[in-house]
Every structure is written in structure tokens, then in C-alpha cells.
From TrEMBL:
Matching PANTHER family: METAL TRANSPORT SYSTEM ATP-BINDING PROTEIN TM_0124-RELATED
Highest taxon listed in the record's lineage: Bacteria
Family: Belongs to the ABC transporter superfamily.
GO molecular function, one term: ATP hydrolysis activity
Record-given protein name: ABC transporter ATP-binding protein
Amino acid sequence: MTIQIKAQHLSMRYKERVLFHIPQLSIGPNDAIYLKGDNGVGKTTLLKILSGLIKPTTGEVFAPDDSWLKRFFNRAGRKDVIYLHQSPYLFDGTVYQNVVYGIRYEKESPKDKRAQVITALRMVGLETLADEHISVLSGGEKQRVAMARAWILKPSILLMDEPSASLDQESIERLVVMAKDLLSRGSSIVVTSHQKNALTELCRKQWWIKDTTLIESPLLQVITDAKQENNYASSNAN
């Protein structure tokens, strides 16, 4: 299932400082969005709001499964929306135990669950490390485990917060494989990054938090405008 989430009049304030005020936005279905902005403008905060992990100062996020029961009990998180932190939390256990955690209560047989986990680990190149303790993995390998754990849940929307930070090229390419697979299923992704890479190249739209607001544009138009500016600057220099 793919979903769309919308937000209106979102703002976040810390004491006297306003991070952003966004009149409206929407994600999905099958969006690929590059979220950019300087340090401290609120990119991580926005992703956490959209995933349901924190509440905005003002405004509201609308998602299909935000029932009155969820709001009444103030449960964190949003169904079918996963937030992937750049330093993901992993459990004290094996690689396999970390990845299978999200489907541990599903009705499939243990054999089918293991097959799903091994498929996920194969996509990130870690199937031979399934029974190793998480502590023996490198930083890039841990990020790949976190991506496999997110992928196995088949989220409708995956919010990726600086997923390529400090990763080697192989790890980035492994994340791209999974992101492409999710997009092919109709899911949406949002990627934050301070520099363009193979993940941001998947994106078709750009969000830019600037001057406490959100500027939206098709990424193709952004690339075209940048080329025109560079050509103009070169011609003037000559």
C-alpha cells in the first residue's frame, strides 16, 4: 500500500527562535524528494514531525492511519512511515535479530521470515554476517543493517536523514539498490544530504528550507537553472 501525507501551517519554535513556518506540503504517492538546507534550519526536525516522532509547535500532519485512537493515546510514530537516522539505533544482538525485529509478530512461518531477512541482507551485501553480533560491524555496515530493517517493513514513505554521511561508495550504492526497489513498489523517499550523491540523484523534486520557509521545485528545473547560471557566469568572465 502506498499513502500520501499532507501538512498545513507547520511551524517549530524553540523559545524565541522560529526554525520554520511551512504553509503546506505533501508527500506521496511515489515521490522522491531531496531535502536540503544549511545546518540548523530544521531538516531533521521536519522529518521527525512528518514521521510522527515529535509534534510541531503549530500545524497538523494528516495521514490515512492517524486515527482518533492514536491521537487519544498520544502514540509516537506513524504507520507506514519510517524515519531513518544518520546514526541509527541498533539492538544488542546479531545482525539477523536486528533486521527481523520489525516482522517478529507477522503471521509468516519462521522459515519465510528468515528468507525475507536473508533477501534484505543480500541486497545490502551482508548476508554472510547474519549471525554476527552487531558490535563487529563498521559504521557503514551498521547503516546498511538499518536500511535492511527499514526495507523489510515495506514502508510507504521512507525519510532518510543524512543516510550517506561518512559512508564509503559501496555502502551508498547498496542503499541506492534498496531505495530504487521501494520506489519501484510505489513508495516515496525523502533524502537529506549536504552534497549530491547517488541517492539524491534518484530524486525528482527538491525541498529547500531557507529563510524559515520551504521552497519546493522539480529537481530537473533546479538543475537547468543552475546550468544556466553557470553558463551566464562563464560568458561574463570571458
